[in-house]
# Entry
Amino acid sequence: MGHSRLTRIRHGGRAAPAVALTFDDGPGPDTERILDALARLDARATFFLVGARVAGRERVVARIRAEGHEIGSHSWTHGRLADRPASGWLELVRTSVALWRAGGVAPRYFRPPYAEWSVRLGRAARLARMRMVTWDVDPRDWQTRDPDVITGRVLDATRPGSIVLLHEGDGAPSVRALPAIVTGLRKRGLEPVTLSALLGGSDHTSGAGPA
# Structure
């Protein structure tokens, strides 16, 4: 595994014929378009949600879970937290409460905004019952609106066990790239699964509430 206890997970085991597609920055106007595309493709993904964006979109959060996807935490404000572990812990707990109330979700994984992390923030995440997750494939989908460019970048870099970073927002050009990404991955024998499925754990979408 690409992780240690107090740092961050970058990828899963390289022997597994699977990858994790992850979407940051929701819930927002593009979330349901992504869900529609994933439903047509019969593919699973993980959504790292910002706590402050949950209010008013509780139904979308519930839909993510109901359709077999996983929900992680992307903090409450999407602020820089690496040097503020106490604030990070408070944001994680607040976000977990919002996700639990919206969809019965107690997230297992935390993606630090801007991939800015520290060992102290990792400890804060552990206190909030989460592990930090970054990625090993970044197609820089915020740089281009061309779905072919995004698809090429993903397929060129993805290996068994990869965690792929994608974003919502700006009309979500990654939504238009999804069919080609998923088809291309499957041609290589790689199935898109949730992070928990990739990493071999429960997805923590039921059971005890947040810390």
User: Anything to note?
Assistant: Residues 1-5, 202-211 have pLDDT under 50 and may be disordered. Helices lie at 31-41, 58-66, 85-103, 119-127, 147-157, 173-187, 195-199.
